[in-house]
Write a structure and sequence with these properties.
- A hairpin with a 2-residue loop joins strand 14 and strand 15.
- Helix content is 45%, strand content 15%.
- It is α/β, with parallel strands linked by helices and 471 residues long.
- The chain starts with a strand and ends with a strand.
- The protein folds into 3 domains: 268 residues, Rossmann fold (3-Layer(aba) Sandwich), CATH 3.40.50.620; 137 residues, Up-down Bundle (Four Helix Bundle (Hemerythrin (Met), subunit A)), CATH 1.20.120.640; 47 residues.
- It is built from 15 helices and 15 strands.
- The radius of gyration is 27 Å and the shape is elongated.
- The longest helix is centred in the C-terminal third of the chain and has 25 residues.
- The strands form 5 sheets. Strands 5, 6, 7, 8 and 9 form a 5-stranded mixed β-sheet that branches.
- The structure holds adenosine monophosphate (AMP) and zinc ion (ZN).
């Protein structure tokens, strides 16, 4: 089956065909974090979504080059640098470090390249120079350089393909220098912002005035440098479609670096937003969670990743703490099944079950239908448990089931339960309890069970004897 993905450009589900004539290499760009604070779980929904896309492409045999930029100069960052009286690098380094730690705790594969905007000022300047040479950009009397949407449209290109823009109802011709302008306004947006006193030490020399880049041009410059002027996939949260991605298209295609007939980006994917307890996430409502807030409540990165991956990426998803509890239970069901399989496999090796993996793959090939994929996983868990209960899985069949899970988990990334390291003291108490049972000294066996419980371990009796887990 071919891979089908919704493309925001055409507003339809399209077959995904890479630009690479060999059909193998795929360039994937995802707008990364603005490092002015800890990322919230809404941001994480988008980054986990981009990890799912990358992992599934790799599962399908594509060779992916995954780029995620770090926006480390931007309006909000500069404001905070001023407020905290630190240097730009000192300020952003803290949140950048936290971002990478959290990326790891959510088991996202590190993108191959994570360029920082501040390290691409030369590329940004040369892109702006090209736009000026093509008369699509101009330096205004305020010293900043703007992109002219009107000139771009007059050059025969269309602006507003990702979102349906009604130009009549808008106010074209104005200029805005803030990075995220009002959605109703179509304004010339800043490519280079002239230095103002509030910027402090955050500025670079340029052919125009000293200043700094606008947010939109950062992504155009870095994505085209690292993936070429025309690449396969561009991702972000739905709020980025306009103006950010629309402006990326205008800048990148305006510079006309693509081979004839090729677009800047072939396929645009946008992830829907995450709501919290049915409402928009906001600090004032107190429903604003960062990953560390949830970890402090005792949840693991694995549980949070699982929950973020349960809904289809184009559906708004409602995050609740109850949902996170339910995620924990679902993972426990998988873990229990895998623990039993490990015992039954006794180290044997075998190939995955092609039909189970095939159904899983077919679900995701259908515009990443993750709900259907999970449905298949839990049908498989139920069936495997049934066969384990009736003792009809030999070591090779159990090993094959473990390989089946490993294959599916290469996409899902929720992992397997850790092999529990039982301290020697606990292991010998368990052994003593087994011996007491065998000697039919049930009083002593119960006392040992109680002693283990007091130390935080519970015994599970299985047909093959007792085992302990943390209680
Ligand atoms: P930012 O750090 O603000 O540039 O955002 C990083 C990414 O998170 C962008 O792709 C946003 O579209 C995305 N994002 C922001 N809020 C949410 C949300 N509530 N749900 C899902 N994604 C979000
Ligand atoms: Zn971007």
């Amino acid at each position: 089956m071919s891979l089908k993905l919704f493309n925001t450009l055409s507003r339809s589900v399209e077959e995904f065909v890479p630009l690479d004539p060999a059909g193998r290499s795929v360039g994937l760009y995802c707008c990364g974090p603005t490092v002015y604070d800890f990322a919230h779980i809404g941001n994480w929904r988008t980054f986990v979504f981009s990890d799912l896309v990358r992992r599934f492409l790799e599962f399908r045999g594509f060779s992916v080059r995954h780029v995620m930029n770090i926006t480390d100069v931007e309006d909000k960052i500069i404001r905070r640098v001023r407020e905290t009286n630190t240097s730009l690098r000192e300020f952003t380094a803290r949140f950048e470090r936290a971002f990478f730690e959290e990326l790891k705790s959510l088991n996202c594969l590190p993108p191959h390249l994570t360029p920082r905007a501040t390290e691409h000022i030369n590329e940004i300047i040369s892109l702006i120079e090209k736009l000026i040479a093509r008369r699509l950009a101009y330096q205004a009397p305020d010293g900043s350089v703007y992109f002219s949407i009107e000139k771009y449209r007059n050059s025969g290109r269309s602006y507003g393909r990702l979102v349906r823009l009604n130009f009549e109802a808008m106010r074209p011709g104005q200029r805005v220098s803030n990075d995220e302008y009002e959605k109703e306004a179509v304004a010339d947006f800043a490519l280079w912002k002239r230095r103002v006193p509030e910027d402090g030490a955050v500025f670079w020399p340029s052919p125009w005035d000293e200043g700094r880049p606008g947010w939109h041009i950062e992504c155009s410059a870095m994505s085209m440098k690292l993936l070429g002027p025309s690449f396969d996939l561009h991702l972000g949260g739905e709020d980025l479609a306009f103006p950010h991605h629309e402006d990326e298209i205008a800048q990148s295609e305006g510079a006309d670096l693509q081979p004839p007939g090729q677009p800047f980006v072939k396929h645009w994917l946008h992830g829907a937003h995450l709501l919290v307890e049915g409402r928009k996430m906001s600090k004032s409502l107190g429903n604003y969670f960062t990953l560390r807030d949830l970890v402090a409540k005792g949840f693991s990165g694995r549980e949070i990743r699982y929950l973020l991956l349960t809904a289809h990426y184009r559906e708004t998803f409602n995050f609740t703490l109850d949902g996170l509890q339910a995620a924990r239970q679902s993972l426990q069901r998988i873990d229990e099944c895998l623990t039993k399989l490990r015992e039954a496999a006794r180290g044997a090796q075998a190939e995955p079950d092609a039909s189970v993996v095939g159904r899983f793959s077919a679900a995701l090939e259908d515009d990443l239908n993750v709900s259907a994929a999970w449905g298949g996983v839990f049908d498989w868990v139920r069936e495997t448990n049934r066969r384990l209960a009736e003792n009809s899985l030999d070591a090779v069949a159990a090993a094959s089931a473990l390989a089946t899970w490993a294959r599916m988990d290469s996409v899902l990334g929720v992992g397997a339960p850790p092999q529990i390291d039982v301290p020697p003291e606990i292991a010998s108490l368990l052994q003593a309890r087994q011996a007491a049972r065998q000697a039919r000294d049930f009083k002593r066996a119960d006392a040992l069970r109680a002693e283990l419980k007091a130390k935080g371990w519970v015994i599970e009796d299985t047909p093959k004897g007792g085992r302990v887990k943390r209680g």
